[in-house]
Design goal:
206 residues; alpha/beta; Rossmann fold; 8-stranded mixed beta sheet; 4-stranded mixed beta sheet; 14 strands; globular
Length: 206
């Protein structure tokens, strides 16, 4: 959906799963957006969201095939608001060891690794957030809010972490720096917590 005279929001459609729940959340908010796999449209947008489910390497391969990896870097470099969700957060980091070693976009420093010492893998269900530092993306969250997680790999340490969660050890649940924001969990499935984050991003983006 697009609307003339409004800022343009691009939702990247690279063939990954779970885009439907995000699209539904945006539609409920009356947000004008374009679901696209065209890198030129992404670069021309005023803000972008990279949602996703699945493996790090397969996601990066799909982005490269469509030249969306370059588009993401251009959006970020231009200072436009950018949101990564789930594997869309993970690929913002340098590398992952999921199914071998894969190289990510390298926008944040850090590495995606499988959970070690966790009670069970995947990490599935509700877990609470600890606010590490403030960012406009997390306005209205104060720590103790719950989000819904489903993942087997995580970033244990990053200087971009603004909120963490503990599951067999601390890991990054929300990362943000300047115009780039991302969540390990799906905000559109995380009830009030996710609604706050989506609304914050849209306020910054549009």
């Amino acid at each position: 959906m697009e609307s003339q005279g409004r800022k343009r929001l691009a939702v990247l459609d690279y063939g990954g799963g779970n885009i439907g729940s995000l699209v539904a959340a945006l539609e409920r908010r009356g947000v004008a957006f374009e679901l696209t796999d065209n890198p030129k449209h992404v670069i021309a947008a005023d803000a972008a969201i990279l949602p996703g489910d699945g493996a790090f390497g397969a996601t990066m391969a799909a982005l490269r095939e469509r030249r969306l990896d370059r588009a993401v870097r251009e959006v970020v470099a231009a200072g436009k608001p950018f949101l990564g969700i789930c594997v869309g957060m993970q690929v913002l980091f340098e590398t992952s060891d999921e199914f071998g070693d894969d190289v990510g976009l390298g926008i944040f420093h850090g590495h995606v690794r499988r959970f070690e010492g966790a009670p069970r893998v995947p990490h599935m269900g509700w877990n609470d957030l600890r606010i590490e530092r403030r960012h406009p993306f997390t306005a209205g969250l104060y720590g103790g809010e719950f989000a819904y997680f489903l993942h087997s790999y995580r970033v244990a340490d990053s200087d971009a972490t603004v909120a963490s969660t503990d599951y067999g050890g601390r890991f990054a649940a929300i990362v943000a720096r300047d115009n780039v924001m991302a969540t390990q969990f799906h905000p559109e499935k995380s009830q009030r917590t996710g609604a706050v984050l989506l609304d914050n991003f849209l306020a910054l983006a549009l």
